[in-house]
Write a structure and sequence with these properties.
Radius of gyration: 24 Å
Strand order of the largest sheet: 1-2
Number of helices: 14
Shape: globular
Structural class: mainly alpha
Strand content: 5-15%
Distance between the termini: 57 Å
Length: about 475
Amino acid sequence: MVDTLLLSRIQFGANISFHILFPTITIALGWVLLFFKVRFTATGEQKWMDAYMFWVKVFALSFAMGVVSGITMSFQFGTNWPGFMETVGNVAGPLLAYEIMTAFFLEAVFLGIMLFGASRVKPWVHTLATFLVAFGTTMSTFWIIVLNSWMHTPQGYEVIDGVVHATNWLEIIFNPSMPYRFIHMMLASGLTVAFLVAGISALRMLWGDRGEDVKTALRVGVIAGAGLIPLQILAGDFHGLNTLEYQPAKVAAMEGNWETGPNVPLVLFALPDQEARENRFEIAVPNGASLILTHKADGVVPGLNDFVTEDGEVLHPRVSPVFFSFRIMVGTGMAMLLLSWGGVVMLRKYGAEAMPRAALYAFCAMSFSGWIATLAGWYTTEIGRQPWLVQGVLTTKDAVSDVPSAMVLSTLIGYLVVYAVLIVAYIGVITYLARKATRGEPFSSRTYPRRGEAVASNLQPGE
């Protein structure tokens, strides 16, 4: 029987993997919706409002899934990881409370106006509601990233009788890795939404929908993706340098580097063998890792063997999961770069109306590529922190509960079954919405007021 620690880690990993999919969409999609609404207000072109009314449905669905899936994680702090709150609750508790007070309440208050008020309230009120919901999702991200970053690079605290107490909240909030993680996450969300918008719009075009709103959304998605991906690559470089400074063991695992030294090659592919402390079937670029991490060919890169004690205790993460998840993230990013830039070229050459079908199929295939990159990056970050739950403060094994492993296994199986059903249903609903919009163009029958106009009077009784 697998022990409770591993099962609890797998269960929490399954929960966070499922949950993070939906905030990754809502964070940036809120700002895309605001852009659509502002453009409609400024130009009066119905295509912008039609695009808004389609994608606000996707936002509502994603928001609901994110809220529900987030509840299960809070339960696990008590059932599976009591040592976490017992040790660092004086820091984690207030940060989670700040998220609720500054973000969740804001979203809950204005979400209804955003979803149902376009033709019922003044245009500026609806635009303001959209802005506040988008701002709320960003604030929620900020506080969650603050807590997660503090767990990686903790500061502003002291330990009294084994319990962490805050000594400087500014240092806790603006810990060394927070700015890099926050920017990296925001850009990841932007890319996820850009490819989702482009992919679903491409799907609708393949189904024969040539509405102006579809072509406009396709252009927005492609151009946004092309603009954000180089920024993400740059942010990733800075994030990597920060990780090298504060979590060298994680970087060593990402690079598959066993011995500390200069002129370290960039390993493109290998099968890391942790028992033998070497890579098998390695394909590498000479000096590549040193150049990327230190910007010098002879720069020194840490090795995994530095994180093994004299008595053989391993103080670095499992190498293979970190090594491969990092490459999946980078590989997906490179595919995004090539497709989005190629898409911009084709938009300039053919326009959205005549974009080649092969390109439309490619964007369809990449609709959820942001999820793949985000999960791979998340696994790199979180598995790469092991054996620590809070770096240098609390190990994962010291925080886990003594719940019988059979009980953890049974709930894990239940979670996985439910999540599998829900993710299929989620993608199915989005596909259904796209098919329905393609067939009926339901958003063109109603007019919506612009700035300075009165609220529309074409509401039917009961609407």
